[in-house]
C-alpha cells in the first residue's frame, strides 16, 4: 500500500514519490509539477510543522489614505453605495478628486487644502440636491435618471410612486386576488 494521505506525514511530493516507487501510480499519470519540483526543490521543505518565518509585515499606505482616513474620521459619509453602479463616484472619491486638484495647484498648505476641499464637496452635494429636487416634481411619473437621484431619499420616493400606481383599495384587492386565504374569515370567531 502507498504512504499515508495524512498531511502531517510527509509532503505531497513524498507521497507522490512513494506512489511512483510502489507502482500504485504509473509514470505517465504523474502530475505535471512533479518533475519541476524534483529539478528545483524549494529551499525549505513545505511541511505543516515548519515555523512561519519572522518577517515583519510592512504597512502600505498611499498618500491619499491619510487624507481619506481623516475625512472618514471627521465626517462620516452617509450615503448608500451600489457596487453595481460604476458610473457614479462615491463621496470620498469626489473628495479625493477635489483634494488632488487643489493640491496640484500648490497654493495652500495641507490643512487649508483639506478644509477647502470639504467646502467644495459640500457645495457640490448641495447643488446636486437642488438639481435633483427641482427636476423631481416635473418628472413625477417617469423613472429618474441615475445621476439626478439624491441617493436613498429619491430611491424611496421612486419605490413609493411605483407602489402607489400598482396598489388598489384593500377590499377590492381581496376580492380580485382570489388566491390564498381570506384573512377576515380566519379571525371571525
Automatic annotation (TrEMBL):
Q: Extract the signal peptide range.
A: none
- Which species is listed as the source? Drosophila persimilis
State any single GO MF term.
structural constituent of ribosome
Q: Which UniProt keywords apply?
A: Mitochondrion, Ribonucleoprotein, Ribosomal protein
Subcellular localization is given as:
Mitochondrion
Q: Where is this region: Disordered?
A: 156-189
The identity of this protein, by name, is Small ribosomal subunit protein mS23
Q: Which residues form a coiled coil?
A: none
Stored InterPro entries: mS23_dom, mS23_dom_met, Ribosomal_mS23_met
* GO CC annotations, alphabetized: mitochondrion; ribosome
Identify the CDD domains for this entry: At1g26750
- A biological process term (GO) from this entry: translation
Small ribosomal subunit protein mS23 conserved domain boundaries: 2-125
Q: Which family does it belong to?
A: Belongs to the mitochondrion-specific ribosomal protein mS23 family.
Amino acid at each position: 500500500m502507498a504512504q499515508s494521505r495524512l498531511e502531517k506525514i510527509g509532503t505531497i511530493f513524498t507521497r507522490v514519490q512513494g506512489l511512483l516507487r510502489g507502482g500504485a501510480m504509473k509514470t505517465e499519470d504523474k502530475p505535471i509539477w512533479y518533475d519541476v519540483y524534483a529539478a528545483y526543490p524549494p529551499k525549505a521543505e513545505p511541511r505543516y510543522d515548519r515555523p512561519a518565518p519572522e518577517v515583519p509585515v510592512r504597512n502600505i499606505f498611499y498618500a491619499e489614505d491619510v487624507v481619506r482616513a481623516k475625512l472618514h474620521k471627521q465626517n462620516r459619509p452617509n450615503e448608500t453605495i451600489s457596487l453595481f453602479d460604476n458610473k457614479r463616484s462615491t463621496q470620498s472619491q469626489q473628495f479625493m478628486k477635489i483634494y488632488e486638484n487643489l493640491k496640484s495647484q500648490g497654493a495652500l498648505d495641507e490643512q487649508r487644502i483639506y478644509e477647502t476641499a470639504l467646502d467644495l464637496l459640500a457645495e457640490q452635494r448641495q447643488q446636486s440636491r437642488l438639481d435633483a429636487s427641482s427636476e423631481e416634481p416635473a418628472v413625477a411619473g417617469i423613472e429618474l435618471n441615475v445621476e439626478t437621484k439624491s441617493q436613498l431619499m429619491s430611491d424611496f420616493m421612486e419605490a413609493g410612486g411605483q407602489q402607489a400606481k400598482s396598489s388598489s383599495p384593500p377590499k377590492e384587492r381581496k376580492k380580485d386576488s382570489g388566491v390564498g386565504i381570506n384573512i377576515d374569515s380566519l379571525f371571525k370567531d
